[in-house]
Design goal:
The complex is a heterodimer of chains A (474) and B (176). Chain A has 16 helices and no strands. By secondary structure, chain A is mainly α. Chain A has one domain: Up-down Bundle (Formate dehydrogenase/DMSO reductase fold), CATH 1.20.1630.10. Chain B is an alpha+beta fold and 176 residues long. Helices cover 49% and strands 12% of the residues of chain B. The chains are: A mainly alpha (474), B alpha+beta (176). The interface between A and B is large, with 67 and 69 residues.
Chain lengths: 474, 176
């Protein structure tokens, strides 16, 4: 034991693990044959992926007329889904980057899976701006490159273009961050493998040896990537919020959107991480690495960001009244009492009321409540984007334009299909790469393992063990 | 990165504390350590080894500055000089509009530049075949390695006794 640990620190690795145990437990899921649960889950999500491919082909072949969008409500499920997926992606970067900067050791149990989730979520999100264009084959128009049309440049004033840069940057930087962290762990898998698997992992681990100088550079790179990913994640969802905030529509044209969207993204992202982690830790038997303390910490973030989102909703209502601006006031009156009132109440209940349950320690540390509420939160966040986009467009300045929107089977298939894409990719990830950051967990073993700290500590400075016992009793 | 083979005498330790004291001892005895390898980044090891700090962050800053300049410069040229168009009454050179993309380009260039530099200076790339001393180093063993290609009997036995003195669990000789 080389450093004293404050008695308030939670145990983060249970089961009296040695470094070798950690390698074993975390590599074995990639080495054994897939379990029945995995095969079942994979078949189901692959089926939805197939549905997705069918729906995209249908859309491109027959055109956007196959959707329910019209001239009034020109953005509906497509952009709702886009913002929903991007929001979900933000948790991964937050867990890896921001929690690294805040020196939160508990991030090591969930960061690898959360970053993978980010990459897959951004891949799903990116589908929607592409397919909603209609003439997808002209998608290259949005990139500024020398062309024979003038050369005609793109409109750098438009948030829709800022989105292009923001999302591409976010995707590639997240990929770099995730992969850089993964390389030493792939080396661990490589050194345990044989034959074809060994050859594959040799290629993907880039010749990592574990040299101290390389570790030093690796830590430096991780820290700086974390440092630039943090403003990146904040900027990406801010730019997405600008898609709405820079317009003139009441209910859209509001300066609260950047912090509102960012908090909402973190909120829904953590909820999705919880959904994934609750399942993953059970199926891959990783409860000793993704402990109840990890689940507890993430639920605390959920209750915090859920409360911020709730305060933002109430602020919007207050400002609508306080401003005296009749169009703003109508926009919110319409949300509560108009034709889409059910989506507004869904949003309010799921996002504001339900996460407040996480103030209770018992509920925060309950797997069933966590799983149930994480899904409720994601449903609520979907409703939030739907409320902002579709209900506002349905009732803007000009009553003669007012309309109603219902999704067609194509749009519903596209959305459920992206769920298939997401889960298929995640399931493949759990087979080929270690789901928990092996090297990082080893690095915190001596300050977070249950044989070193906590009520069961063996090599105890007796005082420290007793102190922690008192804490745990609360 | 040489292709010729080397003879390496390496010792494996079971704990990072043992490794750190051994490295300290090696420095005190003025032994020429070829490399120290660990399964995870060991805190406090770098100063004990006398490793210079990485200058990757300086490069990161430079790459970011290049990205910012390129992004801002290109947009300014395209909108203000090459083909000025009135977009919603905004000025031909709309600096506030350029902020988001300039920021993204800064991050993009910094991240990619630093990452590619990192892999290059470490000699790592997809498909690079690493010269692995022992498969357990990425598992749970901590390693100090000495290059003994040109060493004589006395040198090698001196190193053997160093390993014995510092409590190495295993000592091996390997040609890589």
């Amino acid at each position: 034991m080389s450093q004293p640990v404050a008695p308030v620190r939670h145990v983060l690795i249970e089961g009296n693990k040695t470094y070798h145990n950690i390698s074993e437990d975390l590599c074995v899921p990639t080495e054994k044959a897939p379990s029945r649960e995995w095969i079942l889950a994979f078949s189901l999500s692959a089926a939805f992926l197939g549905l997705y491919i069918f729906a995209v082909t249908w859309t491109i072949w027959k055109g956007i007329g196959e959707w329910g969008a019209n001239r009034t409500i020109n953005w509906a499920w497509d952009i709702t889904n886009f913002v929903w997926w991007i929001g979900i992606g933000h948790a991964g970067t937050l867990i890896s980057a921001i929690l690294l900067l805040f020196r939160q050791r508990w991030r090591t149990g969930v960061n690898r899976a959360a970053e993978a989730m980010t990459i897959f979520a951004v891949m799903c999100a990116g589908q929607f701006p592409l397919i909603h264009m209609g003439r997808l084959w002209l998608a290259f128009f949005i990139f500024p490159f020398p062309n024979t049309r003038g050369p005609l440049w793109v409109n750098f004033n438009s948030p829709l273009l800022w989105d292009v840069f923001a999302i591409s940057t976010y995707f590639s930087v997240s990929l770099l961050f995730w992969y850089t962290g993964l390389v030493p762990d792939l080396a661990t898998v490589r050194d345990r493998a044989a034959g074809f698997r060994k050859k594959m992992y040799e290629i993907f681990s880039f010749g990592w040896t574990g040299s101290a100088k390389h570790w030093q550079r690796w830590e430096s790179l991780s820290l700086i990537l974390a440092g630039i990913s943090t403003p990146l994640v904040l900027s990406v969802h801010t730019i997405v919020s600008f898609d709405f905030a820079t317009s003139v529509i009441p209910g859209w044209h509001t300066t609260i959107f950047p912090p509102y969207f960012v908090a909402g993204a973190i909120f829904s992202g953590f909820a999705m991480v919880q959904t994934l982690m609750v399942i993953t830790r059970k199926v891959l038997k990783l409860e000793e690495y993704i402990t109840i303390n990890h689940i507890d910490s993430m639920n605390k973030v959920i209750v915090l960001t859920g409360t911020i989102v709730g305060v933002a909703y109430l602020t919007e209502l207050f400002i609508a009244w306080y401003s005296g601006y009749i169009y703003e006031q109508f926009a919110f009156y319409n949300r509560v009492f108009g034709v889409y009132w059910w989506s507004y109440f869904g949003m309010m209940f799921c996002n504001v009321v339900s996460p407040q349950l996480f103030w209770s320690r018992k509920i925060r540390r309950s797997i069933w409540w966590t799983f149930f509420l994480s899904i409720v939160v994601n449903i609520g966040m979907w409703f939030e984007r739907f409320v902002i986009i579709a209900t506002t467009l349905a009732r803007d300045y000009l009553p003669s334009s007012w309309s109603y929107y219902s999704p067609t089977w194509v749009e519903i298939s596209l959305f459920t299909g992206t769920l298939g894409l997401f889960f298929t990719l995640f399931l493949i990830f759990t087979r080929v790469a270690p789901v928990v950051a092996i090297a990082e967990v080893k690095a915190i073993l001596k300050v977070a393992g249950d044989q070193f700290i906590g009520p069961n500590a063996k090599k105890s400075h007796g005082h420290a063990a007793h102190e922690t016992e008192k804490q745990e009793k609360h | 990165m040489a292709a010729e083979s080397k003879k390496v005498l390496y010792g494996l330790y079971n704990d990072e504390e043992d490794l750190k004291s051994a490295v300290k001892s090696a420095r005190k005895d003025h032994l020429d350590v070829m490399d120290v390898l660990t399964p995870f980044p060991v805190h406090g090891l770098d100063p004990i080894m006398g490793l210079n700090e990485s200058r990757l962050h300086i490069l990161g800053f430079i790459y970011g500055a290049i990205g910012a300049t390129f992004g801002f410069g290109f947009m300014s040229w395209a909108l203000a000089s090459d083909w000025p168009i009135l977009f919603g009454g905004k000025p031909y050179w709309p600096v506030p509009s350029f902020i988001p993309i300039t920021f993204e380009m800064t991050v993009l260039f910094a991240a990619w530049g630093m990452t590619i530099t990192f892999y290059t200076i470490c000699g790592m790339w997809p498909g690079v075949k690493a010269k692995i001393l022992d498969n357990r180093i990425t598992d749970d063993k901590f390693c100090i390695a000495f290059d003994v290609t040109d060493a004589d009997e006395k040198g090698v036995s001196g190193l053997q006794s160093f390993f014995k003195k510092t409590g190495a669990a295993e000592v091996n000789l390997k040609t890589i």
